[in-house]
Amino acid sequence: MIGNDVVDLQLANLESNWQRKGWLQKIFTAAEQEKIHTAKDQNLQVWTFWSMKEAAYKAHQRSFSKKPVFNPTKIECTSAHKVCIDKSTYDVHTTYTNRYVYSIATQYNATHYYSEMFSGTVDLKKQLEQIIFQKTGNTSVISLKKDENGIPHLYTDTHNLQISCSLTHHGKYFAFVLII
Amino acid sequence: MNNEKLLLKLKTIITPYVQNEEGLNNLSEETDFIQDLEINSANLVDVVLDVEDEFDIEIDNESMEKMLTVKASIEVIEGKLAAK
Known about the structure:
The complex is a heterodimer of chains A (about 180) and B (about 80). By secondary structure, chain A is α+β, with helices and mostly antiparallel strands. Chain A has helices spanning about 10-15, 25, 30-35, 40-65, 125-135; strands spanning about 1-10, 75, 80-85, 90-95, 100-105, 115-120, 140-145, 150-155, 160, 165-170, 175-180. In chain A, helix 3 (about 30-35) packs antiparallel against helix 4 (about 40-65). Chain A is globular and about 50 Å long. The N and C termini of chain A lie close together (about 10 Å). With about 80 residues, chain B is mostly helical. Chain B has a single domain (about 5-80), classed as Non-ribosomal Peptide Synthetase Peptidyl Carrier Protein, Chain A (Orthogonal Bundle), CATH 1.10.1200.10. In chain B, about 60% of the residues lie in helices and about 0% in strands. Chain B has five helices and no strands. The interface of A and B includes residues 16, 22, 71, 150 and 170 of A.
């Protein structure tokens, strides 16, 4: 199971004021808040934790076919690479630049995933088709459908490819990750 | 406060965070904040904080968990107002 999340740092700073009264408390556990307050770059720490939580939440939601809920304090970053939700633990790999933070969450340290990041406009469907062709030889036209829980699935005609995938978009950045 | 008034107040609160204007024009109880209005998930917290300020109520995490649609949000607000 897999999940990903990108935060466009420039846009995040325009859209959200994490210093707003009550904001951190609604999203982060006491331990996470402590780590944020003692971090060298508090802003980066906020968005790193956020993207880790979002990525893990997506993987978790897919694992259990869960209905969407909004309870970020139940998703806890227990270290720089681990996130716990209920009784599940996810391994999270986070990439930083000064423009974005990008997290990929997997379970059982899966390493056989493929992720790509784009900036600006991109034909995501075409990119996915190319990757699926490269990796599997499948030349079919791919379509992307979200199920009733908002979880994306990849199809050829009506056949579900059974490829675990996750997509994310924020501001200038788009990324996908596939277990393939 | 009747349901219609509450819906109007909620609409005013969510408007600055909506990225899909069409969804806002077709606002109904069934409207989903993320799927239909494309509200950024980080801004859902702002919606909750704005609701707390506007109605002078406190929304605990258990209630916040449900606040992903107009209908669920109205139910939470009504419940908290009734308990005041």
